[in-house]
C-alpha cells in the first residue's frame, strides 16, 4: 500500500460539528459564525438541501456563506448527488464556489474466471488475494435459506445445499441502472468460478461529469451557470470515521481508517485544497478572485460584495437603493434564459483584472456559432501593469428559439500563452434535461 502523506503539513484544519441525528439550520449558521470569528481563510462545506429547494432568504448555506464572503472568506460547497435530473443543483448562490463530481483516470475492476477460461469483468473492489482454485457456483433461487459454516466455506454464492448440479453458461442483462437479470444457457457439469483480486485500469474517458452529480440551472437563479467547476469525486480514497460502518449496514461492526467513496462531497475538498493553495501564494486575493482563477485561469473576473448584495436584493424584491440581475454580475461564465419564440438580444458587461505580467489579450469565440452571433467590444485588451482592470461587453444576437433549445459557445481571451475561457449559454427552459453536462469548467 502506498504511503499517504500530507501535502501541506503546515496547513491548519478547524473542524466544526454540525449534524447529530439530524442537521438543523441554527447549527449550520452557528458553525459559520464560529468559523468567521476564528478567522479561517476557506470554508469547505459538503452539505445542502435536496434539489436546491430553498430560496436564498431561507437557505442557511446561502446566508452563512454570504456572511463569510462579507468578511473575505470563500465558501466551497458540494453541488449535490441528485443528478442527472435537470435543475437538481444545490448551493446555487453566486458567492459560493459550487463543485460537481467527475470521474478520474483510473477504475477498479473485478474479474471472474470461468471454467472455460472466459473472463467476466465487473465493477467493484475485492481486496482479498485471488483464489487458488475455482469455487463451486450455486444458484441461490433453487436452494433453501438455511446456511451452515461448513457449507459456506469454498462456495461462491453460499447456500445450504449440495447435490447434482449442471454447469451453466451465464451472462447479465442490464434491465435498468439498479437491476440486472441473470440469463443461463446450456447446462454442463460442476459450475465453478475463480475470483481474482481487483485491478486498477486506465479510464481513457475521464474526466467527465458523474451521472449522480446534480445539474443546473437553479430554478431560483437561472441566469447563472452552476456548478462552477468539477473535481474528482468517483471512487476516491477518503479518511473514514472509525465508528461508522464501512459497508453502511448497521450489523457491520468493522472499523476502517480509509474507504473508497463517491459523491460531490468527495469532490468538494479537492477544490477547497486548490483554493487554499492559491490563497497561500496570494493572501491579498478576494474570494471571487480565487474562485475565478480556478474557473478560468489567467485573468480574473473579480466580483465585489456590493454586486452580490444588489443581486440578492433583485431576487428577493427587497427595498434596496440599487439592484442587479444575475446575468450582470461580473461572473466568469455567462448564461441567460430566453422566452420561446423571441429573438435573442442579450449583453453581458464584464471586467477583467490582470494578475500577471504586462500582456495583450485577443478574444475569440469557440464552438457552434451558426445559430448565435457574437460581438465583443473591445476585442483586444492591452494590460500594461499588474492589477489593471479593463472592461468589455459581450453582445449575443440570434433568431427565435424553440422549446427545449440550448445554444452555447466559449469566450476565450488569449495572449498566446494563457487561455482564459468562459462558457456562454443561451437556452429555453421548457422540458430541458441535462443541458449543463458539458458546460461546467473542468478542474483536472
Automatic annotation (TrEMBL):
InterPro entries: Peptidase_S8/S53_dom, Peptidase_S8/S53_dom_sf, Peptidase_S8_Ser-AS, SBT, Subtilisin-like_FN3. Keywords: Hydrolase, Protease, Serine protease, Signal. It comes from the Eukaryota. The keyword Calcium does not apply. GO terms for molecular function: serine-type endopeptidase activity. One of its GO terms (biological process) is proteolysis. Residues 9-298 form the Peptidase S8/S53 domain. Residues 329-426 form the Subtilisin-like protease fibronectin type-III domain. GO terms for cellular component: extracellular region. Belongs to the peptidase S8 family. This is Putative peptidase S8, subtilisin-related protein. The lineage of its organism: Eukaryota, Viridiplantae, Streptophyta, Embryophyta, Tracheophyta.
Amino acid at each position: 500500500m502506498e504511503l499517504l502523506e500530507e501535502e501541506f503539513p503546515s496547513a491548519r484544519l478547524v473542524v466544526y460539528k454540525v449534524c447529530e441525528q439530524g442537521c438543523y439550520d441554527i447549527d449550520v449558521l452557528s458553525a459559520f459564525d464560529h468559523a468567521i470569528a476564528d478567522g479561517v481563510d476557506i470554508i469547505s462545506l459538503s452539505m445542502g438541501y435536496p434539489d436546491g429547494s430553498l430560496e436564498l432568504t431561507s437557505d442557511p448555506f446561502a446566508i452563512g456563506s454570504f456572511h463569510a464572503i462579507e468578511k473575505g472568506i470563500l465558501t466551497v460547497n458540494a453541488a449535490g448527488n441528485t443528478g442527472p435530473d435537470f435543475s437538481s443543483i444545490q448551493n446555487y448562490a453566486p458567492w459560493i464556489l459550487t463543485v460537481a463530481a467527475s470521474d478520474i483516470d483510473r477504475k477498479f475492476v473485478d474479474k471472474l474466471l470461468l471454467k472455460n477460461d472466459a473472463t467476466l469483468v465487473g465493477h467493484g473492489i475485492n481486496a482479498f488475494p485471488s483464489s487458488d482454485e475455482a469455487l463451486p457456483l450455486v444458484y441461490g433461487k433453487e436452494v433453501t435459506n438455511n446456511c451452515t459454516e461448513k457449507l459456506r466455506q469454498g462456495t461462491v454464492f453460499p447456500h445450504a445445499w449440495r447435490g447434482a448440479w449442471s454447469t451453466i453458461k451465464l451472462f447479465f442483462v442490464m434491465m435498468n441502472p439498479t437491476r440486472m437479470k441473470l440469463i443461463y444457457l446450456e447446462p454442463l457439469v460442476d459450475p465453478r468460478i475463480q475470483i481474482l483480486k481487483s485491478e486498477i485500469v486506465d479510464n481513457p474517458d475521464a474526466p467527465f461529469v458523474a451521472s449522480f452529480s446534480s445539474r443546473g440551472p437553479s430554478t431560483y437563479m437561472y441566469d447563472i451557470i452552476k456548478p462552477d467547476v468539477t473535481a474528482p469525486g468517483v471512487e476516491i480514497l477518503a479518511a473514514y470515521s472509525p465508528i461508522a460502518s464501512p459497508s453502511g449496514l448497521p450489523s457491520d461492526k468493522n472499523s476502517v481508517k480509509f474507504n473508497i467513496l463517491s459523491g460531490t462531497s468527495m469532490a468538494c475538498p479537492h477544490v477547497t485544497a486548490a483554493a487554499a493553495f492559491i490563497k497561500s501564494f496570494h493572501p491579498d486575493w478576494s474570494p471571487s478572485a480565487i474562485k475565478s482563477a480556478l474557473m478560468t485561469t489567467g485573468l480574473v473576473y473579480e466580483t465585489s460584495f456590493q454586486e452580490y448584495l444588489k443581486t440578492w436584493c433583485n431576487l428577493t424584491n427587497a427595498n434596496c437603493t440599487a439592484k442587479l440581475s444575475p446575468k450582470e454580475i461580473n461572473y466568469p461564465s455567462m448564461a441567460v434564459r430566453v422566452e420561446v419564440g423571441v429573438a435573442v438580444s442579450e449583453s453581458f458587461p464584464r471586467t477583467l483584472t490582470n494578475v500577471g505580467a504586462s500582456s495583450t489579450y485577443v478574444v475569440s469565440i469557440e464552438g457552434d456559432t451558426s445559430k448565435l452571433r457574437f460581438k465583443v467590444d473591445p476585442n483586444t485588451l492591452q494590460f500594461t501593469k499588474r492589477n489593471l482592470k479593463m472592461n468589455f461587453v459581450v453582445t449575443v444576437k440570434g433568431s427565435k428559439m424553440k422549446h427545449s433549445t440550448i445554444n452555447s459557445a466559449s469566450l476565450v481571451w488569449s495572449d498566446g500563452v494563457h487561455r482564459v475561457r468562459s462558457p456562454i449559454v443561451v437556452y429555453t427552459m421548457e422540458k430541458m434535461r441535462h443541458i449543463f453536462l458539458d458546460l461546467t469548467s473542468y478542474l483536472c
